[in-house]
Design brief:
By secondary structure, the protein is of the alpha/beta class. It is built from ten helices and eleven strands. Helix content is 40%, strand content 17%. It binds nicotinamide-adenine-dinucleotide.
Length: 293
């Protein structure tokens, strides 16, 4: 069994992005500028945004967090987004999800200019991505592709089973792995909460991507010998043994699944750190694209 070390890969890729940014800026390019919009006080969202700010500093980007009250109306938030769309200094921005219930996430996503949509959630970017055109690829699926590439994991002709069909993870990674060329050329099965005989289907996967958000859902009897297992899930559970009182669990029962795998990602330290790197990659791409205009 080989452990996929997302922390190590992310650190290496961040160094590459930092070096690329330094030479871009030295040659007169505009320093990439990422803005994160944070609505409300959600603890996990604050942590994620904090990690994104730190990553920006590490790779040499400018960044800013726009903090908004949880009670902000949808139209007020849409005005903030319009302002960021127009702001010539801003290369890319994200609106941290989830949003308070009274705001439509879909309307917010569609209000972001596709050119600044470094999360890659706008339907224009989704459409471009699935037709194989240049696009911002959503960060988590892109991070998974980077891990497969880094470990040179064969994908051509493999049966990839994705569990979870969200627009953020499951659906895009299923699409990307079916694309022509490496890391793609997979035969993909996309499973979800209505899939019949899920265990049997997952057991046929050469590559299994678990992105359903149910802690330790994937057990050893669902995995075939030698499979590659990518665990996207993050569930916070209370823990008496950890300092901060909680621990993170993936969607895979790691201890019993790992011995059967050729490669597996841990939680934490697998896909998680890669997501931020891919956001940095998209932001640098946004800065370059805007200067080329
Ligand atoms: P989501 O809730 O939007 O989607 C979950 C999907 O799983 C749904 O399509 C649903 O049909 C499917 N599902 C739910 N229960 C199922 C079951 N019992 N059997 C089969 N399918 C089932 O979630 P999401 O945003 O895609 O996130 C999934 C998980 O990945 C969460 O734990 C989330 O925290 C984590 N996540 C991690 C990262 C990262 O950087 N590592 C990024 C995004 C999401």
């Amino acid at each position: 069994m080989n452990l996929i070390n997302g922390k190590e890969v992310a650190a290496k890729l961040k160094q590459d992005i930092a070096a690329e940014t330094a030479s871009w800026v030295a040659s007169g390019g505009k320093r990439p500028y990422l803005v994160a919009v944070l609505v409300g006080e959600d603890g996990a969202s604050q942590t994620y945004v904090g990690h994104k700010e730190k990553a920006c500093r590490e790779v040499g980007f400018d960044s800013r967090v726009v903090r908004l009250d949880a009670g902000i109306s949808e139209s007020e938030l849409l005005e903030v987004i319009e302002g960021l769309n127009r702001d010539a200094e801003v290369d890319g921005f994200i609106v941290q999800l989830p949003l308070p219930k009274h705001i439509s996430e879909q309307r917010v996503i569609e209000a972001i200019s596709p050119e600044k949509d470094v999360d890659g959630f706008h339907p224009e970017n989704t459409g471009r991505m699935i037709t194989g055109l240049d696009a911002y690829i959503p960060a988590t699926p892109d991070g998974i592709l980077e891990l497969l590439k880094y470990y040179q994991i064969e994908t051509s002709g493999k049966h990839c089973v994705v569990i979870g069909r969200s627009n953020i993870v499951g659906r895009p990674i299923a699409n990307l792995l079916s694309m022509k060329g490496y890391p793609g050329d997979c035969t993909v099965t996309l499973c979800h909460s209505r899939t019949a005989n899920l265990k049997e289907v997952v057991r046929t996967g050469d590559i299994v991507i678990a992105a359903l958000g149910v802690a330790e859902f994937v057990t050893a009897d669902m995995i075939k010998e030698g499979a590659v297992v990518i665990d996207v899930g993050i569930t916070r559970v209370k823990s008496d043994t950890s300092k901060n009182g909680f621990k993170l669990l993936g969607d895979v029962k790691f201890d019993e699944v790992a011995p059967k795998c050729s490669y597996i990602t841990p939680v934490p330290g697998g896909v998680g750190p890669m997501t931020i790197v891919s956001l940095m990659k998209n932001t640098l791409k946004a800065a370059r694209r805007r200067s080329a205009k």
